Amino acid sequence: MKIPETQDIDRPPADLLARFADISSATASGQLKHLGISDSHIAGPTARTPGNKVAGPALTLQFMPQREDQYSADEYDDPEVQLHRHCLYHTQPGDVVVVDARGSMTSGVFGEMMLTYFLGRGGVGAVIDGCIRDFPSASQLGVGLWLRGTTPNFHTQTTIFPFAVNVPIACGDTLVMPGDIIVADDDGAVVVPQQLAAQLADDAGEHDEWEEFARERLREGGDLRRYYPLIDAARPEYEEWKRGRAN
């Protein structure tokens, strides 16, 4: 079989990505709703490495149903024709690999060795609408994992095979474009379109600041109706709080 050619992704500027370091998936999802994206959550994969938070550009990998005339290699036959490897070859520091594995619960998209390579290249997270294998060791690597589950099977053992790299995919029925920013934490994974990223980062900064103010007031016994969401009558109080922080 012919060794495939795959393309890299267009990554957002590093300074823009840095602004997402403290933006939660909940904040990203909520702000995207205000920007016209009603549901940016990749439903299905859940956090399997609690406490891990990532924000990085998406490498994408698409699986399709097996058909023998299209794919007949075994686990270690001619490894270079297996596209899941080629997806990881594009890894740069800070990347997140996002996989449409069709929700399969019987195919281990990656295992410890592949994820170790991904980590060594600087990858920080994997969002998979499906499973991995070698979970006990893979979960200790330091790569953030958002998965449907785990399996002892290898990636093409049952019903799917890797079909395309760095193309638009449907992960958990959510569209992911190559290079979209993935924000993932214990709440789940959210897709931020590149063209909305700068506006979202601006909005999220303001949102987080007034939420911090509101949190302080609520902890002190303040009125929920006044402080969450922040009503106009509380704005002068909020602005004074901000000035005090700046001094």
Account of the protein in words:
With 247 residues, the chain is of the alpha/beta class. Strands 1, 2, 3, 4, 5, 6, 9 and 10 form an eight-stranded mixed beta sheet that branches. A two-stranded antiparallel ribbon has the order 7-8. α2 crosses α6.
Summarize the structure.
With 247 residues, the protein is an alpha/beta fold. The protein starts with 13 loop residues before the first helix and ends with a helix. The chain has helices at 14-18, 25-34, 83-89, 112-120, 135-138, 194-219, 224-227, 235-246, and strands at residues 46-47, 54-65, 96-100, 125-132, 144-150, 160-165, 169-171, 174-176, 181-185, 188-192.
Secondary structure topology:
Blueprint: H1 14-18, H2 25-34, E1 46-47, E2 54-65, H3 83-89, E3 96-100, H4 112-120, E4 125-132, H5 135-138, E5 144-150, E6 160-165, E7 169-171, E8 174-176, E9 181-185, E10 188-192, H6 194-219, H7 224-227, H8 235-246
Parallel strand pairs: 2-3, 3-4, 4-5
Antiparallel strand pairs: 1-5, 2-6, 2-9, 7-8, 9-10
Helix pairs in contact: 2-6
Which second-level CATH architecture of the largest domain applies? 3-Layer(bba) Sandwich
Kindly report the CATH topology of the largest domain.
Glucose Oxidase, domain 1
What global shape is seen?
elongated
> What is the helical fraction, as a range of percent?
25-40%
Give unreliable regions as ranges.
none
Radius of gyration: 21 Å
What is the strand content? 15-25%
The total tally of domains equals 2
> Pairing-aware structural class of the strands and helices?
alpha/beta
